[in-house]
Predict the 3D structure of the following.
Amino acid sequence: MKSFLMIYLVLCLNISYNLFSKKPIQESLIDGQEIYNDFCAQCHLEDGKGVEGIYPPLAKSDFLNDINQTISSIKYGLKGPIIVNGKEYNSIMVSQGLDDEEISDVVNYILNSWGNSSKELITEEIVTSVKK
Ligand code: HEC
């Protein structure tokens, strides 16, 4: 009886692990870098420093402290005045048309590049849950 229960438990754990397992961070960062270079680097530049007064920086950007706001701006676009590291930007970024998994990858990439670091792994599910 006991061993039957053990096998049952292991099976359940295994199934739930497969159902809920996340894309590993290393894989997400590699995909995120590719997406960044294709869709973001033309404005925010490969080193994430942007162009002062025109394209705000992502490297060491205090805007990224609010993860919800970060995801929302990439998912839906961003318009109007914002302050990034004490400098005002009053422009428009249109949505780049990425799907939720691609957004999670690019957010993991920008949160962990150019000296940025984040403990939180952004999953596709988190991106899906972010509303405008
Ligand atoms: C055509 C130029 C352009 C492209 C391409 C672009 N952005 Fe932006 N981005 C902007 C501008 C301009 C703003 C500021 C908008 C405002 O003033 O409200 C901005 C703001 C941001 C912000 C918030 C401010 C900050 O610097 O922290 C984030 C985060 C961001 N962009 C990430 C991305 C990511 C990720 C991509 C690629 C998927 C991307 N952007 C592609 C121009 C661009």
In short: The chain has a mean pLDDT of 92. The pocket of heme C is lined by residues 39-40, 42-44, 55-58, 61, 63-64, 70, 73-74, 78-80, 82, 84, 89-93, 96, 106, 110 (CB under 6 Å). The CA atoms of residues 15 and 126 lie 22 Å apart. The radius of gyration is 18 Å.
